[in-house]
């Protein structure tokens, strides 16, 4: 039985070694805007992920050596915004959630914004298809085989220029402390909003995740069929929540009621390094910390070891991609 479980885990890992990725093209209502890095900041990490203690580095904001993009895209509440993959990649084939964070440009100019201010979460996607433990290792996730991280701009975000940070967390190596982060920032101007108060709760990036957070050390290699821990801070009121912790809701997008998240998957702050700042607007309270022990945590590391979980390394497929 153990040999069979080990073989199954190794076969599963082989299916996850598709090429790494990043994002460089902006979509608005599913239409590409401009060219590569016209609105999304170019960085020097290429398509390699951030892992381990690298999430504590300053460059975790918009990625390594990210430089201001030449233009700022104007959108309105209700527009669908997408961050499309770079270097010819055409589908996310790593299991894990997506998040989108925003920070208001301090001087009204997103080209000059360094990301050191307060960030709030406007969207997250989790699991869109209920199934067994095997499906949690691949196509259960809402983002599976999609070539962009996307969300609908909430009505609760006031007018202004923002950095918008789209992120996918790949969990196939998370059981060994090697969750992979793929992310980039766009320069976006929100125009036509009726909101006046800055949304909350807020956080700092880096600082939104701690290295030992349960959400980014979750094991896919046990028997769990759900993802009960949500990374980072809660989605703001009116922000987008896609899927659920167990996928039983299907591929649905709903507006978050507030800082407590959805009823199917309560949004919790897993940040042991720093609690989120008090909301700068509205009445949403900061989410409670969720770092006290591992009780009730599905698919833990010991279960993964018993099932013969694979090593944490993930080799990028040897592909011919220009990084120029």
Automatic annotation (TrEMBL):
EC number(s) given by UniProt: 1.14.99.56
Name of a matching Pfam family: AA9
Biased composition (Basic residues): 315-324
Domain Auxiliary Activity family 9 catalytic stretches: 20-227
Record's compositionally biased regions (Basic and acidic residues): 243-254
Cofactor(s) this protein requires: Cu(2+)
Catalytic activity: [(1->4)-beta-D-glucosyl]n+m + reduced acceptor + O2 = 4-dehydro-beta-D-glucosyl-[(1->4)-beta-D-glucosyl]n-1 + [(1->4)-beta-D-glucosyl]m + acceptor + H2O
Compartments, as annotated in UniProt: Secreted
Signal peptide: 1-19
Presence of the UniProt keyword Cell membrane in the record: no
PANTHER family from the UniProt entry: ENDO-BETA-1,4-GLUCANASE D, PUTATIVE (AFU_ORTHOLOGUE AFUA_1G12560)-RELATED
Name of the featured protein: lytic cellulose monooxygenase (C4-dehydrogenating)
Native source organism of the sequence: Apiospora saccharicola
């Amino acid at each position: 039985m153990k040999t069979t479980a080990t073989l199954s885990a190794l076969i599963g890992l082989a299916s996850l070694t598709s090429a790494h990725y990043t994002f460089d093209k902006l979509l608005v209502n599913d239409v590409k805007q401009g060219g590569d890095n016209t609105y999304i900041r170019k960085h020097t990490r290429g398509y390699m992920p951030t892992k381990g203690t690298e999430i504590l580095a300053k460059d975790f904001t918009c990625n390594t050596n990210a430089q201001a993009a030449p233009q700022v895209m104007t959108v309105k509440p209700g527009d669908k915004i997408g961050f499309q993959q770079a270097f010819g990649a055409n589908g996310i084939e790593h299991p894990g959630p997506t998040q989108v964070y925003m920070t208001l440009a301090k001087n009204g100019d997103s080209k000059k914004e360094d990301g050191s201010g307060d960030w709030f979460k406007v969207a997250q996607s989790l699991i869109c298809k209920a199934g067994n433990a095997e499906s949690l290792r691949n196509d259960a996730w809402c983002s599976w085989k999609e070539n962009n991280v996307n969300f609908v701009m909430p009505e609760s975000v006031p007018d202004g220029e923002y950095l918008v940070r789209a992120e996918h967390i790949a969990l196939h190596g998370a059981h060994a402390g090697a969750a992979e982060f793929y992310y980039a920032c766009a320069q976006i101007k929100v125009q036509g909003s009726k909101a006046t108060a800055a949304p909350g709760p807020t956080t700092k990036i880096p600082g939104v995740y701690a290295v030992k957070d349960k959400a980014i050390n979750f094991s896919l290699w046990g028997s769990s069929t759900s993802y009960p821990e949500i990374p980072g801070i809660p989605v703001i009121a009116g922000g987008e929540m896609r899927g659920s912790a167990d996928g039983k809701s299907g591929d649905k997008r709903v507006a978050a009621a507030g800082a407590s998240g959805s009823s199917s998957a309560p949004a919790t702050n897993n940040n042991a390094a720093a609690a989120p700042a008090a909301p700068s607007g509205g009445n949403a309270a900061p989410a409670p910390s969720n770092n006290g022990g591992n009780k009730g945590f599905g698919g833990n590391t010991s279960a993964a070891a018993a099932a013969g979980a694979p090593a944490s390394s993930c080799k990028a497929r040897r592909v011919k991609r220009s990084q120029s």
